[in-house]
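Entry:
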Amino acid sequence: MIEPVKVGDRLIGPGQPVYTVAEIGINHNGDVGIACRLIDAAADAGFDAVKFQKRTPELCVPPDQRHLERDTPWGRMTYLDYRHRIELGTEQFSVIAAHCRARKIAWFASCWDEPSVDFIEQFDPPCHKLASASITNEGLVGRVVATGRPIILSTGMSSPEEIRAAVELCRDRPLVLTHATSAYPCPPEETNLRMIQTLEGDFACPVGYSGHEIGLQITLAAVALGACCIERHVTLDRAMWGSDHAASVEPQGMARLIRDIRIIERAMGDGVKRVYASELASKAKLRAKNACIANPASPN
């Protein structure tokens, strides 16, 4: 029996409504106005939560990359300066927290370093997310565990042994795993959705799906296969500048995704065969007709 995990006022697990997360990540491009528009789009579509990313650039940018220059919408700058340019601070996240409260949508973040965990903690998040790239970072995993909050752990780019080691580090905390393939965008043949069931069998905890593919079909298939939590990157426009926009879902697609997830939930049923009231008229008409064809009256 897999026990559900409580995140905020919601339960995540088998038999519960799918917990839907709109991954804003860094698709705000360092603009809190864009972040709030994405929150609005997610709330309007019916997502349960939005998620951001938080980094300390000096810790997350390797020394040999810090002074590499790149073209950006704000001019040519070093990679370290670019990372600072798109990072949101206390003032911006305070605006985000207030906007999420007003829109009645939860929010949390993937923290990529230990100081970022401390930073996000000031906003009392309902859980912490550990990104696929972070699950071998024992110091970061330990810092997240020490917060005492539920953890959502993505498993992209990870071997079974790495996943098992990270789960062991999180053993004292409520845990949701999400199957993922860390390719952006991810080709359909590499999504390997049956891993949802494999992870559930191996770790006996709720398992979701974090998708990086183009389109909605694969995410909807994940729901049909039992994913209890769905995360997709979202954007205002897939043509916007930035590394994550191309594999993200635009507002119209966000609304279709949530609509179709809720339809699939209703369609899955409980696996118990029954005759529905809606079938009775057809049964009375068609079974009688078939009986006449199968057993024609004897000629006089």
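The chain has a mean pLDDT of 95.
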